[in-house]
Amino acid sequence: MRWRTSLTSYTRTGRGGSRRGLKRVAVVAGLVAMLVVALVSASFAGVFSGSARAATRTPTPARHVATPVRPAAARARTAAAPRTSCTSVAHIGDSTSVGMVSPTWLANPAQRLAAQYRDVGVRHVQIDASGGRSIVEEMPDQINGYKVASAWYQQGFRGCWVIALGTNDTANVAAGSNVGLLARIQEMMAAAHGAPVMWVNTQTDLTSGPWSEANMQAWNNALVQATKQYPNMRIFNWAGMVQPGWHLSDGIHYTSAGYAIRAAAIAQALTHAFPADGHSTSVIVN
User: Fold this and answer.
1) pLDDT band at 3 (very low <50, low <70, confident <90, very high)
2) pLDDT surpassing 90 at residue 258
3) Are 106 and 260 a contacting pair, CB within 8 Å?
4) Which residue, among 113, 131, 165, 120, has the nearest Cα to 48 in the 3D structure?
5) Are 136 and 171 in contact (CB under 8 A)?
6) 84 and 157 Cβ atoms separated by less than 8 Å
7) Could you tell me the end-to-end alpha-carbon distance of the chain, in angstroms, rounded to an integer?
8) What distances in angstroms separate CA 54 from CA 18, 49, 51, 67, 101, one per listed residue?
9) Domain of 37: which CATH number?
10) pTM above 0.70, yes or no
């Protein structure tokens, strides 16, 4: 499922834009890997294939209560919180982003990704999250990450990019794709046309298979290597903070609490990657 959002509402986006450059075709093994992750995602995230209901582990709906008025001191502390220079953000992600925008997983709108971005100074955000997504391969009726970014750029988006892709890319490479890790990163960076990019790195709890943590570390190393080529690129080290208790039993996706932490952490990382005042001192945000 693809979601596009203003700061207050979510609607599905349609197909748009065309891919520039040569179209790469992944080997059959890579596509099989994507089908496997889509099935896993459907079981645990429960928000794919046009459905916003959880297939399993449906969270208990939260009761809606009035929000108390914060005292002046609390409002002052909020006003002094770190802010980002990115007033417009395009966020492109896979199933690990879907839970951050889904009411099924985050019943409180204030916990969702758009609200978290707003809290750090972003005024306009568009989000496209799709289960099983990679930069190169495509599931049926899906647009890959490169095409989403290219379409948005062609439609006039000029702002900062947050890329939360790589979990499926590294699995597809492990399964036999002929498009390597660094080539995938370079393709996505080309779509940003030199604008600020914060890339969220990857992590799983798996010890074997295409989505193993060893493969995720290889992807993260490729991201670090890419920063030498792209001065506009920063990496949020999500892998360095995530805890096993935030994962579902599949070792890839997250609980509702995990998604809430992830959304807040990504927004806060943006304030360090591209702060409102001054410049970031490191390409890696911890």
Assistant:
1) low
2) yes
3) yes
4) 131
5) no
6) no
7) 30
8) 32, 12, 8, 27, 13
9) 3.40.50.1110
10) yes
